[in-house]
Design goal:
5-stranded mixed sheet; 23% helix; 3-stranded mixed sheet; alpha+beta
């Protein structure tokens, strides 16, 4: 479902990621809500995924990166069909550490190490 994430930033107050993975605690808190929004006083999602759109690179690589880090989202994926790459950002001490994967590289998710996908498979699905 389309779920908004409240973030603190100079430009915007909510984001609508292409994909979210919620913790069980957050999913329970959202049950029965009248609007699908994760408020600032709720636990953050575990994972946010964005697919880069043409002419929106700055938004996904820069603004959302800092907003999601400030929000405490443990992992952020940037799927970039234009650059033919997947960037996985892991939150470490309040900042994202990034790893870029290309071509037939196996994508490694620190949160979900059981995922067995290559960049080609991810790009094909996006």
């Amino acid at each position: 479902m389309k779920t908004e994430v409240a973030v603190s930033g100079a430009r915007i107050s909510v984001r609508l990621p292409d994909l979210l993975v919620l913790s069980e605690e957050l999913a329970t808190e959202m049950e029965g809500a009248s609007r699908s929004i994760i408020l600032m006083d709720m636990p953050p999602p575990l994972l946010a995924v964005e697919v880069v759109s043409p002419n929106q690179e700055k938004r996904d690589y820069r603004y959302k990166r800092s907003e999601y880090a400030a929000r405490g989202i443990a992992e952020y994926w940037i799927i970039d069909p234009l650059q033919q790459q997947v960037m996985i950002l892991e939150l470490v001490e309040g900042l994202y550490e990034e790893k870029v994967y290309r071509d037939s590289d196996r994508v490694f998710s620190p949160l979900f190490p059981q995922i067995n996908l290559t960049v080609e498979q991810v790009l094909q699905a996006s």
